[in-house]
Amino acid sequence: MADNRKYYYLKLKENFFDSDSIVLLEDMKDGILYSNILLKLYLKSLKNGGKLQLDEHIPYTAQMIATLTRHQIGTVERALEIFRQLGLVEQLDSGAFYMTDIELMIGQSSTEAERKRAARLENKALLPPWTKGGHLSDIRPPEIEIELEKEIEIEKEREGETGHPAPAAYGRYNNVILTDTELSGLKTELPDKWEYYIDRLSCHIASTGKQYHSHAATIYKWAQEDAAKGKAAPKQGIPDYSCKEGESL
Fold first, then answer.
1. CATH number of the domain at 7-104, please?
2. Can you list the residues of the chain whose pLDDT is less than 50?
3. Dist. CA 153–CA 118, nearest whole Å
4. pLDDT tens, 132-146?
5. Per the CB 3.0–4.6 Å rule, which of 47, 165, 226, 239 could disulfide with 113?
6. Domain-by-domain residue ranges, the chain?
7. Sign of the torsion angle spanned by Cα atoms 32, 35, 37, 43
């Protein structure tokens, strides 16, 4: 079953610990403890938009924060006062503490599939490119980071528009695009052959550059033609990726 819960994560810039407020904070007596408390409070406030509260009616008290962060109450009280002085925390009229910079640090993900897509894109980017000298470069340029973010945002928009996870890429060359429903249908109707046909189509697209209106429909078409000719898809070994010239939908 798909995991459609919403997850939140903390986005910190690489120079977070070099900022003036954090450097001053950690330079104090017990400053490392205060820094640890601050990070835990950021995490605790994510799902409430920066507010530290148990639910929409009950704000966290210093004692509750001490319990949740596993620090002494005195340490937490001193930390909160220092956070206020540094402008890291404000106390709202409701009594709730508000983490002032949290809006710049909140990231969220709506599905397990989205996180997997992000991981897949990240793994692709980790493959180092060949340089002109024939050596592999282990440096990932910032342009790739930008493209990764763009691809993730595009897929998130697609998911938001349809209410369903965006199609994913499959096959040896990650160029066979199928929705979850299409993939499930292939597994059901071609239980021993679906992987073969996905790889066959993947290699065919990669070698010929052809484009198809529907990759799932193309696979069904090939399977029907093979069945009509009495040609069984191999279950192991090197698959046969041959097809008629001009095959398309």
1. 1.10.10.10
2. 1-3, 130-141, 236-238, 249
3. 10
4. 444 444 444 455 555
5. 165
6. 7-104, 110-166, 167-249
7. negative
